[in-house]
Design a protein that fits this description.
By secondary structure, this protein is mainly α. It contains 9 helices and 2 strands, in the order H-H-E-E-H-H-H-H-H-H-H.
Length: 251
């Protein structure tokens, strides 16, 4: 009996690259990872604790820039595949943990008596208000981030195989709808239910979710430009055929 592969198997192998990642050096992968982590930390620590109202629309200020992390996640999965995208997710998770511990340690240090604002009052309360998130909020944020980004990446990777690489807009928007929904459903109730009124939790959760998805839709043309350019520059267009989509590496 012949051990040669069936012609249909050869055709499938030509159409969709196998999920195993051969050792390669990419010119821009590390830069996108840095951009992803930068947006993530800035969104969590600079703007996440502020609630804004513009034109009667109430939302968390972090929603303005946080969707960029999903944009970078889409680009990473679309071009480099799920496995490399997962590495970036865990890099972001580790960076958030380090930033959280650093913020806690700095706030715990006794403030100098000379560290005063223009009104002659200590700057410590202002720093605590901005960087002193409770461990409940921190835990909710970390859990929501890693699960939401994982869902986003898995949905996009599977949709790419199902559509044979067509309809990028459907993959980026569809994965964001799923990932941001999971992120919002986990984060807001765990972080703020019992602190904010239930009505405010629901209002901010829904408004932030809609803004995040709308941001992805608006940025779709830019996503097309970046993805097409990267695929040519890196000579890579990875398809996750037979990929292990577990959240933990080697699980």
């Amino acid at each position: 009996m012949s051990n040669l592969p069936h012609p249909s198997e050869l055709n499938a192998a030509k159409e969709l690259p196998h999920a195993a990642h051969p050792p390669r050096h990419y010119r821009y992968y590390d830069l996108i990872m840095v951009a992803f982590v930068t947006v993530l930390i800035c969104s969590e620590f600079i703007s996440a604790s502020k609630i804004a109202t513009v034109g009667g629309f109430t939302f968390g200020a972090g929603v303005i820039f946080f969707p960029l992390s999903y944009l970078f996640g889409d680009i990473l999965t679309e071009v480099y595949g799920y496995e490399r995208s997962r590495k970036v997710i865990w890099a972001g998770f580790g960076s958030l943990i380090f930033a959280t511990i650093m913020a806690w340690f700095v706030l715990m240090l006794p403030p100098s008596a000379a560290w005063l604002n223009a009104s002659g009052q200590s700057n410590q309360p202002a720093w605590e208000a901005v960087f002193g998130n409770s461990w409940r909020i921190v835990g909710a944020s970390l859990l929501a981030f890693v699960v939401g980004e994982w869902v986003n990446s898995v949905v996009l990777a599977k949709m790419k195989v199902m559509t044979n690489g067509k309809h990028l807009w459907a993959r980026t928007i569809g994965s964001t709808i799923a990932g941001e929904a999971v992120d919002s459903i986990i984060f807001y109730p765990l972080a703020f239910l019992g602190i904010w009124s239930p009505a405010l939790v629901v209002t901010v959760m829904i408004s932030n979710y809609l803004l995040k998805v709308a941001t992805e839709v608006v940025l779709t043309p830019m996503t097309y430009l970046v993805v097409n350019w990267l695929k040519k520059a890196e000579n890579e267009d990875f398809y996750d055929v037979g990929t292990d989509f577990s959240l933990l590496p080697g699980a």
